[in-house]
Design a protein that fits this description.
16% strand; alpha/beta; 8 helices
C-alpha cells in the first residue's frame, strides 16, 4: 500500500472515532463541545441550554457570523437550516457556519439552492462536517463566506477538536 492510501484509511478511522464519540454524548456535553468550537474560533459562545439554533457568534470586520454545532446521528434537515437562518438574521448575523457530523440532508441542500432561501436575503452559509475539518476540506468550504480570514478560521477549527 502507498502512503496516501494508508493516510486516507487513518483519517477515515479518526473521523469515525470522533463522529461516534460525539454522537454518544448527551445533550449537555454536545453543547459544551459546541461552545469549545466557537471559543476556538475566538467567537462568543451562547449559554448552555436552549439556544434557538445558535451556538455562538463571531465578528469579523464588523460583520457578525452565527455558528451552530449539530452533533446528531443524522444529516441536518431543511427545517434546521431554515430556523438557523431566521434566528441568525434576527440577531443581525449576515452569514453562518453549521458544523455537523453528517452534513446536510438532500432536502436541506435543495433548500439552499432554492429561490425560497435566497428571497429572504443574502445569507452565505458554510456547512462543515467533522470529516471536512479532519481532512482539511473546510478551508475551501469556508471560502464561500468570502472572508479574507477563512484560512485563519479553518486553522482554528483544526485545533477545536482537540480536548
Amino acid at each position: 500500500m502507498d502512503g496516501k492510501t494508508d493516510t486516507s484509511k487513518q483519517m477515515n478511522a479518526i473521523t469515525y472515532y470522533y463522529s461516534k464519540s460525539f454522537e454518544s454524548k448527551d445533550s449537555k456535553e454536545k453543547q459544551k463541545i459546541g461552545q469549545r468550537i466557537v471559543e476556538a474560533l475566538e467567537g462568543n459562545p451562547g449559554p448552555l441550554g436552549p439556544d434557538g439554533g445558535i451556538d455562538g457568534f463571531i465578528k469579523i470586520k464588523n460583520i457578525i457570523y452565527a455558528f451552530q454545532v449539530k452533533l446528531s446521528n443524522r444529516p441536518i434537515s431543511r427545517d434546521v437550516v431554515s430556523a438557523f437562518k431566521v434566528h441568525a438574521l434576527g440577531k443581525n448575523a449576515l452569514g453562518g457556519i453549521i458544523i455537523s457530523i453528517h452534513g446536510l440532508s438532500s432536502a436541506a441542500k435543495k433548500y439552499l439552492d432554492s429561490e425560497e432561501y435566497s428571497k429572504s436575503g443574502k445569507f452565505p452559509l458554510a456547512n462543515l462536517t467533522i470529516n471536512d475539518i479532519i481532512m482539511n476540506f473546510h478551508y475551501e468550504k469556508l471560502r464561500i463566506l468570502s472572508l479574507d480570514e477563512s484560512d485563519v478560521l479553518a486553522q482554528r477549527l483544526n485545533h477545536s477538536l482537540i480536548e
